[in-house]
Amino acid sequence: DMDTVFKEGLLYLQAKTWRKIWMSLYKPSSTGVGRLELYTVADNIAAVHDNKKTGRPKSQARKVVRLSDCLSVTAAPKESCPTDCEAFYLNTTSATYTLASPTTQDLINALCVLAFQVTTSLLPGNWEE
Hints:
Layout: E1 5-14, E2 18-26, E3 35-40, H1 45-53, E4 62-66, E5 70-75, E6 86-92, E7 96-101, H2 104-116
Antiparallel strand pairs: 1-2, 1-7, 2-3, 3-4, 5-6, 6-7
Domain PH: 4-129
Protein name: PH domain-containing protein
GO biological process, one term: Ras protein signal transduction
């Protein structure tokens, strides 16, 4: 599996309550489609880091969102969310996900670039090296 992770990290997903998830964002490549993979995470973060050493988390539920199914990514300033996080909506053809992260702007930028081919020069802050 040669797919490159473009960005990854802990996020919160609003179900009935905010739940920690692990997100991996993949660029489209010759071996796979551009996609967002969301894994449920146990509350202890150490488990996530162990999983990173051994590859993909095996036991966690995984949800795959194809970037081609993404319709829009919008900030959600009115959502109350975990401390130091900002919420945003990921609207797809099948569902709307309410997510929160300490690095929401970075994530929105990354999703816009990969899903909608927006050039980074149009986005506030140059986050790409």
